[in-house]
UniProtKB/TrEMBL annotation:
Site positions for Important for catalytic activity: 218
This protein's name: Endolytic murein transglycosylase
One Gene Ontology MF term: lytic endotransglycosylase activity
Keywords: Cell inner membrane, Cell membrane, Cell wall biogenesis/degradation, Lyase, Membrane, Transmembrane, Transmembrane helix
PANTHER family: ENDOLYTIC MUREIN TRANSGLYCOSYLASE (PTHR30518)
One annotated GO biological process: peptidoglycan biosynthetic process
Function text: Functions as a peptidoglycan terminase that cleaves nascent peptidoglycan strands endolytically to terminate their elongation.
Family: Belongs to the transglycosylase MltG family.
Pfam families with a match to the protein in the record: YceG (PF02618)
Cellular component terms (Gene Ontology): plasma membrane
InterPro entries in UniProt: MLTG-like
Source organism: Neptuniibacter caesariensis
Amino acid sequence: MLKRILLILIMLLALIAVAGLWLWNDYQGYLIKPLGLLEKQVFEVEKGTNYSKLLNKLESISNGINKPYMKLYGRQSGLAGKIKAGIYELDQNTTPTSFLATVTSGQSLSFQFTIIEGSTFQELKQRIGENPHLIDDISSLSVKEVKKKLDIAQHPEGMFLAETYSFDKNSLASSLLLRAHATLEKELTKAWEASRSHTLPYKTPYEALIMASIVEKETGKVEERPIISGVFVRRLNKKMRLQTDPTVIYGMGDNYKGNIRRSDLRKPTPYNTYVIPALPPTPIAMVGREAIVAALNPADGKALYFVAKGDGSHYFSATLKEHNNAVRKYQLNRKNNYRSSP
């Protein structure tokens, strides 16, 4: 009888051992298999989320998870109590181990916002208001309120460097703009100090920024920017009016409907460079680094005029006669956005 009981006990222990080994192997295999996420997605862990709530949220976006295994791994690894709030990116290859490594890393996903070269401050405010990841404390403010909030002395037009900025979710829009403004000042100061020319018609870096904004609006071709800058610099040095359409359009504001009439060219505004014999009072758009460098490093040459060729590039002329011939040539197939100087 005793032998029978002992045999039964041995068999039970063997079964338990086999079952335990199977469970252990199954558990280990589960940890390295994908969780079954249906698609690549952003996973947000809110502040104060505990491990149980984390697993519930994970379960809701997958084909189902093994909670006992997940809880065991959380305790075994010690990661269950190390969850960090943030926004993380998960995909179809995410496993239980990589999931916990991700949500305890603190390496929250960042977002990007691009200030577009040639865009106006009004357009920038609109895009800020449309961004779902920024806390918008800017778009509803007046120019005066923006200047006060950001502690900027000048009009905010052109005061933020056009490039792409990374930010965390729920960052203040004002914080992003402060970074963009600081970056602009750094780049402008660097370019101003690097320029050794004594023939530039600028008294301050701000005037160079105004020129950079005009160059930015006149061409999207990097190689043309120093050439166009050279045209405008020579015109200013010769006391000639810039006669550039983008400044007229900016001065027209909401009255601009896609075309410039002759009466618009004659109408006095602070920005109408067909009328004023100088730079406009502020930039007319956001600028990138290349436009700043071009404004402070104009190309040498004799050209005083240019006309759009219709393919994004321009034809440059040294004399009015040559320019008028070019206008006649390129006006034949010109588009609505045709511009020439003068």
